[in-house]
Amino acid sequence: MRSDITRIPQLSWLLTFKCVAENGSFTFAARELRLTQSAISQRIAKLEDLLKAQLFFRNSKKVELTESGKMLLEQVQAPFDQIIEVLKNYHQNPTSKYLIIETEPVWNRVILSPELPSFLAQNQDIIFRQTLTTHHLDFSIGTDLAIKWGEGSWDEFDAQFLSSMDYYPVCSPEFMKRHDISEISDLANVKVLHERDYSDWNYWLKYHPCEGINLNTGHIVGESDILMQLAIAGIGVALCGYPLVREYIKSGQLVLPLPHLKVRHNKAYYILTKKNRKLSEQAKSFIHFVNSLTLNEYK
């Protein structure tokens, strides 16, 4: 009996294997488990040594399962998902159910925050947990779903389209008046602002060419809220999704200097869930809820 027990892998090794397999990456698995990449590699090596089988093909681009790895994943995936679900819902009140989501700050502020109290009031058995991430996906253990901005393709995730946005140039009323912006050619004489890189403006300019505009002179910031604040402060012209600046426009803090020049962005918001993982009832309720929010007028 003792020899049989010593041949049983540690649960931490199997959990690590599951994370690497589902993420297709040692790096993402390390982030999800909050371990170093070296620790992840050591656990996988010990598991392969114990099982006398290679579980992954390793190359510079992606980690892929071998046939032995695929067989093992089929055996351990469902039991671990069940354990995680049980632990997540374990609470003094047995009727309570946890809902763990990941969203981006600007979507959370503009779209979710005003409506979340209504959802929780209608679903009082749900205990809500949330993490905010910008421009990357964590999807830590126990997460039910994430709402992220992107092109619709994430490895190891099912992506359900949620909403797209029309992008407009925006600026403060004072900036528009000071620089007399009334035609697209006027953008060549002002500073334009960017989020992360030049890609949004480059995409917009494909549909509305502007001779002489210089993207290189504009400030680059890392997040939409900062971009909007720079525009409100009169620093320059930003390119923003209309739903995200709608309240600023209503309050008069921002204006659309060229309201007829919009572009439907090639990216959109998506609801991400793990492939081959059964959704909890609370996750299904939340997905139904977010599909009803006001941003859906831009579907």
Automatic annotation (TrEMBL):
Entry annotated with the keyword Transcription regulation: yes
Record-linked PROSITE patterns: HTH_LYSR
GO molecular function, one term: sequence-specific DNA binding
InterPro entries: LysR-type_TF_proteobact-type (IPR058163), LysR_HTH_N (IPR000847), LysR_subst-bd (IPR005119), WH-like_DNA-bd_sf (IPR036388), WH_DNA-bd_sf (IPR036390)
Top-level taxonomic group: Bacteria
First and last residue of the signal peptide: none
Residue span, HTH lysR-type domain: 9-66
Record carries keyword DNA-binding: yes
Keywords, in A-Z order: DNA-binding, Transcription, Transcription regulation
Pfam families linked: HTH_1, LysR_substrate
GO biological process, one term: DNA-templated transcription
Family assignment from sequence similarity: Belongs to the LysR transcriptional regulatory family.
Name the UniProt record assigns to this protein: Glycine cleavage system transcriptional activator
Organism encoding this protein: Providencia heimbachae ATCC 35613
